[in-house]
Design brief:
By secondary structure, this protein is an alpha+beta fold. The chain is built from 12 helices and 20 strands. Strands 17-16-13-14-15-12-18 form a 7-stranded antiparallel beta sheet. Strands 6-2-1-10-20 form a 5-stranded parallel beta sheet, sandwiched between helices. A hairpin with a 2-residue loop joins strand 8 and strand 9. The two termini are 15 Å apart.
């Protein structure tokens, strides 16, 4: 069995190694000088390998097409990924939120372990840029790379999405899939900062912890979570915002806004008591000078303005109705969202090869015999925390094994 894998990232390397271990003759075609270019920058250079959780927890963190991943995660669960790297000499550690990193904090250790493994498995690595698939009578028979035909019985497309194009993820996989008759769900950036009308320069640099963010599509709340976020010159960023962006797939046809609960630990009744206690301590002060114990200094002018209360109103003159308006502002601080930052800044790409046209049990194309897909090129994406790399490892593992073992249909 002669197999070509296009792309030497997480999914492609795993696919190549598994196919070679299963007895296939495997050639890995990678356009960069070394494999794992995108792996090198993940987790801020530390490589968030996976999340130390069970399969159901992974699925709960996959907002797009989670059911498609049942077989892949069943074949290679997070515990298996951890065991895989530790068996290859990479000690791991688990941090907040179950995030797993190499104990050294060096992504290079993960890449080196992968490289050594696939070389020992017999994978031939060639630096080449694939131009197109070679097709004959509706099935794949190889690829054209740098103008030369490379024959193959099976081809695994693991080219990544369109995010971080400097790492080689330039969307070529979508073109190959289209060539083979596949439908491409339009790619758009995910796990990416959000742009607000006019930016957020007044609040730029302000980081908020322990807040709750809710995403609204029109008038409907579609997602909510608790954590950290950041205001920037262009809008919003930080872990909560990156995850929120995964739910905003229809800019242009639908309106989105973010609502921030600045005090999620306090219900409105308890927060009102807190306000009364703070006001009692500052009853002769101007309103704008009475919120220092409740809010970061940088946020106070924006909250005061939105509350509709004159900043120079004496605290002892604030009415119950005005206090209710302030309460509403604290619990429902709205930010309109006009779009996402460019796909080149996204951690991952949402969209890709329609999973309806790929077998979830083998990662094989339902449109073109001999063709397989793995990783971010598929229309599956997850939140931050190691879940997207888990998808890459698991789909790569299943695609590699299946391509080496499946009989011709």
């Amino acid at each position: 069995m002669n197999i070509i894998v296009i792309g030497g990232g997480a999914a492609g390397s795993m696919a190549a190694g598994m196919a070679a271990q299963a007895g296939a003759h495997v050639t890995l075609l990678e356009r960069n000088e070394k494999i794992g270019r995108k792996l090198f920058i993940t987790g801020k250079g530390r490589c968030n390998v996976c999340n130390d959780c069970d399969v159901q927890d992974v699925l709960r963190n996959v907002p797009v097409n989670p059911r498609f991943l049942y077989s892949a995660l069943g074949a290679l669960a997070p515990a298996d990924v951890m065991a895989f790297f530790e068996a290859r000499g990479v000690p791991l550690k688990t941090e907040r939120g179950g995030r797993v990193f190499p104990a050294s904090d060096k992504s290079a250790d993960i890449i080196d372990a992968l490289f050594t493994w696939i070389k020992h498995a017999g994978v031939i690595i060639k630096r080449a840029t694939v131009d197109e698939l070679a097709l004959d009578a509706g099935r794949v028979v190889g690829v054209y790379a740098d103008g030369v035909l490379h024959p193959a019985d099976r081809v695994i497309v693991a080219t990544g999405g369109a995010s971080y194009p400097q790492t080689g993820s330039t969307g070529d996989g979508y073109r190959f899939a289209k060539q083979a008759g596949h439908t491409i769900v339009p790619p758009n950036p995910s796990l990416v900062p959000l742009v607000t009308p006019g930016g957020c320069e007044e609040l730029m640099g302000l980081s908020l912890r322990n807040v709750q963010v809710t995403v609204f599509e029109g008038d409907k709340a579609i997602w909510s979570a608790f954590g950290e976020m950041l205001f920037t010159h262009f809008g919003l960023s930080g872990p909560l915002i990156l995850s929120a962006s995964a739910h905003m797939r229809h800019f242009g046809s639908r309106d989105y806004r973010i609502e921030i609960d600045l005090k999620p630990a306090l219900d409105e009744k308890t927060l009102d008591k807190r306000l009364l206690a703070d006001f009692a301590q500052h009853k002769n002060s101007d309103f704008i000078n009475a919120l220092g114990g409740l809010l970061p200094r940088k946020l106070i002018p924006a909250v005061v303005r939105r509350s509709g209360i004159d900043p120079r109103t004496k605290v002892n003159g604030i009415t119950r109705a005005q206090r209710a308006a302030l309460l509403g502002t604290l619990k429902h601080f709205e930010v309109a969202v006009s779009g996402k930052r460019p796909i080149a800044e996204a951690i991952i790409t949402s969209g890709g090869v329609s999973v309806r046209e790929v077998s979830p049990k083998t990662m094989a194309s339902k449109k073109c015999p001999g063709l397989y897909f793995a990783g971010e090129v598929l229309d599956v994406d997850a939140y931050t925390g190691g879940y997207n790399l888990q998808i890459a490892w698991s789909t790569g593992y299943l695609a590699g094994l299946s391509a080496a073992q499946e009989e011709d249909g």
